Amino acid sequence: MGKFPGNPLHHELLLSGEYLEETTVSGSLYLIDSYPGYIPVGTGQVHGELWTIHRADYLFPILDSYEDVNLEQPSSGEYRRELVPVRTTQNTRVEAWIYIYQGSLEDKIKLESGYFL
User: Fold this and answer.
1) 103: exposed, middle or buried (C-beta count within 10 Å: 0-12, 13-18, 19+)?
2) CB atoms near residue 61 (< 10 Å)
3) Parallel, antiparallel, or unpaired for β 17-26 and 45-53?
4) Mind listing the pLDDT tens digit for each residue in 52-92?
5) Most buried among 20, 88, 101, 117, by the most CB within 10 A?
6) At 105, phi and psi to the nearest 5?
7) Cα distance between residue 10 and residue 66, in whole Å
8) Band of the pLDDT at 1, cuts 50, 70, 90?
9) Which domains does the chain have, with CATH numbers?
10) Burial label, 99 (beta-carbon count in 10 A; 0-12, 13-18, 19+)
């Protein structure tokens, strides 16, 4: 079911996707106000969830809007969505969509554990 049922879009994920397992990705995680911001820089491991999306044409526009992604001008949104390699709990490498934070990291707290919650 996923670990983040408090997320405002959790219901949409349950309707349009299926939780598969936990994953890790190389990089760094920061606290951006009350939500996380992943950047693909650094040697740390950031922990997340792998979902399969059954209705991408429906769900990705909702997620992109929520994450402030601008597909026409990717550098102008707070996040951009990219396909990146992640590691599953079985240490298998798979490609997954991830939202990458593009804002300033000034005064942001780095989450050294790689976990948001």
Assistant:
1) middle
2) 12
3) antiparallel
4) 999 888 889 988 998 999 888 888 899 999 999 999 999 99
5) 101
6) -100, 5
7) 12
8) very low
9) 10-110 (3.10.490.10)
10) buried
Which residues face 46 on adjacent strands? Answer: 25
Q: Quote the tokens at residue 57.
A: 């044409």
Name residues whose C-beta falls within 8 Å of residue 80's C-beta, 6 or more positions apart in sequence.
Answer: 69, 74, 99, 100, 102
Q: Which of 39-43, 74-78, 100-104 has the lowest mean pLDDT?
A: 74-78
| pLDDT of 108 strictly over 60 | yes
What is the number of other CB atoms lying within 10 angstroms of the CB of residue 69? 20
Angle among Cα 67, 95, 112 to the nearest 5 degrees reads 60
**AA identity, residue 29:** L
CA separation for the pair 84, 48 (Å, rounded): 13
Bridge pairing between strands 109-110 and 28-32: antiparallel
pLDDT at 73: 85
